[in-house]
Amino acid sequence: MHILVTGAAGMIGRKLSARLVKDGHLNGHKIDRLTLIDVIAPEKPAGFAGTVDFSPSDLSSPGAAAKAVADRPEVIFHLAGVVSGEAETDFEKGYRVNLDGTRTLFEAIRTADFKPKVVFTSSIAVFGTPFPPSIPDDFHLTPLTSYGTQKAICELLLADYTRRGFLDGVGIRLPTICVRPGKPNKAASGFFSSIIREPLAGQEALLPVADTVRHTHASPRAAVGFLVHAAGLTRQQLGTRINLSMPGISCTVGEQIEALRRVAGNKVAARIRRAPDELVQRIVAGWAEQLDAKRARNLGFKAEASFDDIILAHIEDELEGKIAN
Amino acid sequence: MHILVTGAAGMIGRKLSARLVKDGHLNGHKIDRLTLIDVIAPEKPAGFAGTVDFSPSDLSSPGAAAKAVADRPEVIFHLAGVVSGEAETDFEKGYRVNLDGTRTLFEAIRTADFKPKVVFTSSIAVFGTPFPPSIPDDFHLTPLTSYGTQKAICELLLADYTRRGFLDGVGIRLPTICVRPGKPNKAASGFFSSIIREPLAGQEALLPVADTVRHTHASPRAAVGFLVHAAGLTRQQLGTRINLSMPGISCTVGEQIEALRRVAGNKVAARIRRAPDELVQRIVAGWAEQLDAKRARNLGFKAEASFDDIILAHIEDELEGKIAN
Question: What would you report as the CA-atom Rg of chain A, rounded to the nearest whole angstrom?
Fold first, then answer.
């Protein structure tokens, strides 16, 4: 089986590539070729015996998408995109990469006339306030960012290209990925990860919002699991509504901190310092607190069972089991 | 005030232009210029003292949109598009005209850096089955046609361009327009109009579905009223959710026929002949039966009060008050 991963140099892209290499197969077929593309050159995943092609390319640039699908990969994980903050500050780039890049890929698939499985990573940013306490699967698409708009448009395209028989798509709306490995970034959502990651690494973390703020999280490991599981779903299982909100752990910041205390002790949890930030508070107030994700759960998508498990996954996957005391 | 109408040669475009000329003003401002564009040359509306520019052009062709907005019309009614059937049979044309044409128009507005009011005609085709008995304003966008997909994407673009301050948009989802004047066409929805229009004109009409089929209708006159009313709404009134399902009369085909009998008598109603058509039945089964349209009603959009009124509007507007006996 030949698999194409776009956005392969990103955090999820690298973890997905590593998982595919580790599994060695997908949907019961041996993986013998990986095509990894990104705007920066992706790394070769360790320990893969098959062929790996790298392509540092921007899907929205002329010919790039046609080249990427020329050898007709059976499964395409389309993760490429610019993040929420960049799509908001650079309007043209956001539309070019997130919308035109995706549409160009879909058009390349349509005109090449093969019918790959396409797993598209969408986001809960397709939803915008006002929200009910828990967002149902059939809730209106009312994004309040350009990023969310681009994701919602790509979901609609994916559904239409699937309905028309040009590809076999499934869109998965990821909740906030927590704990993100690496350095703190300036994303407004960054603190959800940093209040766990930094204390576990022996560093202080700043908490800009109240303990009562509720949000939905899934680990990077769970996100990769969603992608792999999505690739195995059939049209019959999905029906006509192929874009799905993924499950996650809905909890308050206070509950995140209590989980950290249970897993790592008081000393670690004490490394969180309250530093209220009105801008972050205002942004976060517009985000979804909870999603039903009933359809996804019924289709077998599995998130962690508790925020404790999310922390434990981070300690296992990123810290080799070690907590800084 | 300078007003641009795209799709000005279409049925609604012509009726809107005539209404604007008759009113002579919009939102309290005298209309002194109309720019009418369409792929075929629009007719000059009778009795207009101001300047009328005609432009037979396709908005998706290079430079056409920039030219259309070069003189900065204060209000733009964007009606242009290919219809549902054509968007389904010609995939590329549907996306080119309905999506690229709209996006090119919005981009021309953004880069010209003025902030017109943009009234966009969307459709209830943005919704797809399975439906609740009455579709709420916050129902999921799950179109099941390429046309509905293109309309839903344009709604999302309109909302994002509005949120970013590039234009001041409002999208109105029209129910089925009934009674459409003119000859019978091959649209699957055509019979909703022809079972009224043909009998009133002394001709036989074929009814391909059961009397129990329920659907939502508004007259061409009401549709034009929605457009004019939408142009007068402020950002404050609309809030962030600027795309609105329009009200209409939800009734069964049997109720349509009873209304025809009340308005025009038994002899006219007897001109409807049952001719079941499985294909039409199957298509219509996927359509919305009823929409709440609560937000639109609260914002002052007015449809007819009964299907009788829809028939009376047709007799008045198209038949000079005369029914064929």
Answer: 19
Whether the CB of A169 is below 8 Å from some CB of chain B: the reply is no
Q: Tell me which architecture the domain covering B2-174+220-245 has in CATH.
A: 3-Layer(aba) Sandwich (3.40)
Residue A325 has what pLDDT?
Answer: 81
Residues in chain B: 325
What is the DSSP annotation of B126-177? G--SS--SSB-TTB----SSHHHHHHHHHHHHHHHHHHTTS-EEEEEEE-EE
Instruction: State how far the Cα of B249 lies from the Cα of B304, in Å rounded to an integer.
Output: 7
- CATH entry, A2-175+219-245, from 3.40.50.720, 3.10.310.40, 2.40.30.100, 3.40.50.300: 3.40.50.720
The dihedral region occupied by A63, where left means phi > 0, alpha psi between -120 and 50, and beta the remainder, is left
Q: Is the CB of A144 less than 8 angstroms away from the CB of B163? A: yes
Residue of A nearest to B107 (CA): A92
Tell me the nearest-neighbour CA distance from B146 into chain A, angstroms.
Answer: 6
pLDDT confidence of residue B313: 97
pLDDT digits (tens, 9 = 90+) for B246-262: 999 999 999 999 999 99
Would you state the pLDDT for residue A154? 98
B84 pLDDT tier (thresholds 50, 70, 90): confident
Q: Do B139 and A144 touch (CB under 8 A)?
A: no
Instruction: Please say if the pLDDT value at position A296 is more than 90.
Output: yes
Interface A-B, measured as beta-carbon pairs within 8 A, has a size of 62
Rounded to the nearest 10°, the torsion over CA A197, A201, A205, A211 is 50
Q: Does A138 contact B140 at a Cβ distance shorter than 8 Å?
A: yes
Domain chopping of chain B, boundaries: 2-174+220-245, 190-216+248-291+303-318
Cβ–Cβ of A143/B156 closer than 8 Å?
yes
Amino acid at B174: L
Q: How far apart are CA A319 and CA A316, in angstroms?
A: 6
Question: What CA–CA distance (Å, rounded) separates B159 from B235?
Answer: 11
Q: Is any Cβ of chain B less than 8 angstroms from the Cβ of A140?
A: yes
Decide: residue A43, CB within 10 A, 0-12 exposed, 13-18 middle, 19+ buried: middle
Side chain identity at residue B282, one-letter code: R
Contact A101, A30 (CB under 8 A): no
Residue in the block written with tokens 């296992």? A316
Q: Please indicate if any CB of chain A lies within 8 Å of the CB of B144.
A: yes
Compute the average pLDDT of residues B99-107: 98
% residues pLDDT > 90 (chain B): 85
Which pTM value belongs to this model?
A: 0.95
Say yes or no: A92 contacts chain B, CB-CB below 8 A: no
CA distance A195 to A34: 35
For residues B307 and B250, the answer to whether their CB atoms sit within 8 Å is no
CATH topology of domain B190-216+248-291+303-318: UDP-galactose 4-epimerase; domain 1 (3.90.25)
Report the catalytic residues of B: 147
CB B6 within 8 A of CB B54: no
Within 8 A of A137 by CB-CB distance, chain B residues are 140
Between A117-121, B58-62, B68-72, B197-201, the lowest mean confidence (pLDDT) is in B58-62
Angstrom distance (rounded) from CA B124 to CA B202: 31
Active-site residue, from A48, A106, A120, A147: A147
Question: Do B2-174+220-245 and B190-216+248-291+303-318 agree at the fold level?
Answer: no
